[in-house]
Structure of Molybdopterin molybdenumtransferase:
Amino acid sequence: MISIEKAIQLVKQHVKPLLKTTHKPVEKAGGYELSQDIHSPINMPPFRQSAMDGYALNLHDSLEYRLIGEIKAGDGQQPVLKPGEAVRIFTGAAVPDTANAVMMQEKVGINGNSITIQHPIEKETNIRPLGEQVKQGALALKKGTKLTPAAIGYLSSLGIQDVSVFQKPSIALISTGNELVEPGTDLSHGKIYESNSKMLLSALYSLKFYDVSIDKVEDDYTKTLTKLKTIIEQNDLVLITGGISVGDYDYVGKALNELGVEEVFYKVKQKPGKPLFFGKKENTSIFALPGNPAAALTCFYVYVYIALQNLMGRDNNQLPYVEAKSLSAFQKKGDRPQFLKAIYNNGTVEILEGQSSAMQQTFALSNALVFATETTTQIDINDSVETILLPV
């Protein structure tokens, strides 16, 4: 049995970036990282652009100008303005080459075909210059940039239709146990509804990992061995729930050993989630998580999250830790460090009742985990506690 710190170190050490690339339509590339630099195919903006509704002016010494026309956003005409002439113009419209300032409409008086501006104006005022955001051929976004909604919009504004991105891992979820049945079927005595796969699938989706398959295997050694062999060969990351402990019908560990999976560690000194297995088979990472739902999800956030970030080559690979003031008292039993389900809010954290590894209801209310160290025996109200902020 190893420490939490050692387990985290081993996950970071053994899970390497995939470095596989693929092409995606830009509108479907959200959450991916660019696998190469992108240079702008155009100037942005591609023309001198009005920054507001007003009047484009060819400046001269007087405050009065002759109005000769109008330009809306999208218009392609290029009226020629002589000094002392102006056109009505709207935000986003192309400023004529012969105009050298735009006066906002609130500072203009209109008298038929002439206008009077309230004060002199400097050249290029309220005009977005050609290529202000990015010049044609210049670096638009560098390799490794995560494509946020804003980045997708930016690339689309440059006319880019598809991008080369780092491929995300293929992930398999496997739940084990004869007691598990699918929601929607009759719940006979001794059975429970399977929830771990849906819980972990939701966690993966929230992190924008979508290449996920789900399988179930009964507590049968031959079936477990056959299923795991196929799944490990076909995926970059395998998450198994249940069957990893030492019960008579826990076959996962034995099957992984027979398949030649290298055990990096098994059992971590923590609560919940002590019977956690992490191993490697060639380039596939395998986590066997505890069957109890709260323990499985805790291990996902503490260890699997790191593996996912490493697979994507991301440097910031752990969930954020903050110090928070406890609004609750808690008595810790035993010497194992403990992850406590909690609600964090603006620098304070409430440790919830119901810390059992099977308590999903409490976890459903949580947005954080309070970390009680090995030497912690008591948390008092107003104590400063280390808190892990969960993705929301």
